[in-house]
Amino acid sequence: MQERIMDLLVVVENEDVTVELIQVNEDLNNAILGYERFTRNQQRLLEQNRNLNEATNTSNEPSAPSCDLLDLSPILPTPMSNGEALNTVNAQLSALKLFMKKLMFTTTKELKITVTAKVKKKKNPPAYAT
């Protein structure tokens, strides 16, 4: 109960006024409880918004330094003559052919090693201790 109302209840002798004071006290207590609930909910809402903003801010930041990221911006072609363009394309194709030959050689070599190891394993089964 509110302190002032308690003081009044002791002094007042009229029953109607006493009932009215008790009703006012209940209303005040309900209003105070409602306000406390409101402030708790407001604090919880502010914390959720703050957490959401922090999550949004961290997701906008890159996960790696920009020097480690690839530059995917479109490259504007530089004007060149047909001969220069043909030489550039031929150079790129020859580099690609060399890369593919090296890749095929490596893959074939690895495949032969793997097959040879499996064949040897089948010919010589593991000895079990008796």
Automatic annotation (TrEMBL):
<dbReference type="GO" id="GO:0043130">
    <property type="term" value="F:ubiquitin binding"/>
</dbReference>
<dbReference type="GO" id="GO:0035091">
    <property type="term" value="F:phosphatidylinositol binding"/>
</dbReference>
<dbReference type="GO" id="GO:0016020">
    <property type="term" value="C:membrane"/>
</dbReference>
<protein>
    <recommendedName>
        <fullName>GAT domain-containing protein</fullName>
    </recommendedName>
</protein>
<dbReference type="InterPro" id="IPR038425">
    <property type="entry name" value="GAT_sf"/>
</dbReference>
<dbReference type="GO" id="GO:0007165">
    <property type="term" value="P:signal transduction"/>
</dbReference>
<dbReference type="InterPro" id="IPR004152">
    <property type="entry name" value="GAT_dom"/>
</dbReference>
<dbReference type="GO" id="GO:0030276">
    <property type="term" value="F:clathrin binding"/>
</dbReference>
<feature type="domain" description="GAT">
    <location>
        <begin position="1"/>
        <end position="40"/>
    </location>
</feature>
<dbReference type="GO" id="GO:0005768">
    <property type="term" value="C:endosome"/>
</dbReference>
